[in-house]
Design the sequence.
């Protein structure tokens, strides 16, 4: 079974609008971390946001927020006020404890339209 | 602070030739990872080091791939001989032992085997 599932191969959003990128995960470990990374065309993976499995509140980092629904095992990324520079691939990832295994999804390509 | 440095940035080789990639992690990061990212997919772990010890190399194709991190700092990943299917981006990342900020990735080496 896939550890991380991203069902949206590509998404389009109008500039200044909000967009939600979906991510579901599969683990039986009670302690885990969820991450989102941005990969622009240059290839570098840029860390965006982290959510711990025991965190009570949804994580937020500037225009990024993580909609964490533990019972549904989903960790959707919300980008508010989209900018042209947000156009990139976005990867959801999970790290289980112990063992420090780190799994990535297949990614979602986001295009921001002027 | 310098990020994770990888070289070369691009490499084109003929099949059956050897190739090596180099990674210098962030100073103080004891954990180092090599990932392979095929086109249109998420990164997949090849090997993880804790200091100079390879603690997870289960996904490393050991018949042709090798890696080393002799002094627990820089690391080299080698392929010998390369095959057409090895064409991918090879990403290096580093982190503190249990960082909630995820990994810091390098810019990657884009390998093309012709």
Sequence:
């Amino acid at each position: 079974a896939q550890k991380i599932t991203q069902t949206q191969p590509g998404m389009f959003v109008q500039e200044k609008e909000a967009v939600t990128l979906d991510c579901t995960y599969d683990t039986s470990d009670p302690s885990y971390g969820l991450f989102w990374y941005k990969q622009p065309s240059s290839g570098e993976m840029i860390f965006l946001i982290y959510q711990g499995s025991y965190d009570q509140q949804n994580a937020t980092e500037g225009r990024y927020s993580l909609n964490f629904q533990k019972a549904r095992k989903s960790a959707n990324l919300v980008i508010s006020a989209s900018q042209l520079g947000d156009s990139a691939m976005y990867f959801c990832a999970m790290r289980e404890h112990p063992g420090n295994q780190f799994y990535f999804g297949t990614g979602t390509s986001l295009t921001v339209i002027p | 602070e310098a990020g994770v440095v990888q070289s070369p940035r691009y490499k084109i080789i003929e099949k059956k030739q050897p190739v090596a990639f180099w990674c210098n992690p962030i100073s103080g990061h004891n954990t180092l990872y090599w990932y392979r990212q095929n086109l249109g997919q998420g990164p997949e772990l090849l090997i993880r080091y804790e200091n100079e010890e390879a603690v997870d190399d289960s996904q490393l194709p050991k018949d042709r791939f090798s890696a080393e991190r002799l002094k627990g700092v820089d690391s080299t990943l080698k392929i010998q001989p390369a095959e057409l299917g090895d064409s991918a981006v090879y990403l290096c990342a580093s982190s503190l032992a249990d960082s909630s900020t995820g990994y810091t990735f390098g810019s990657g080496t884009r390998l093309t085997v012709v």
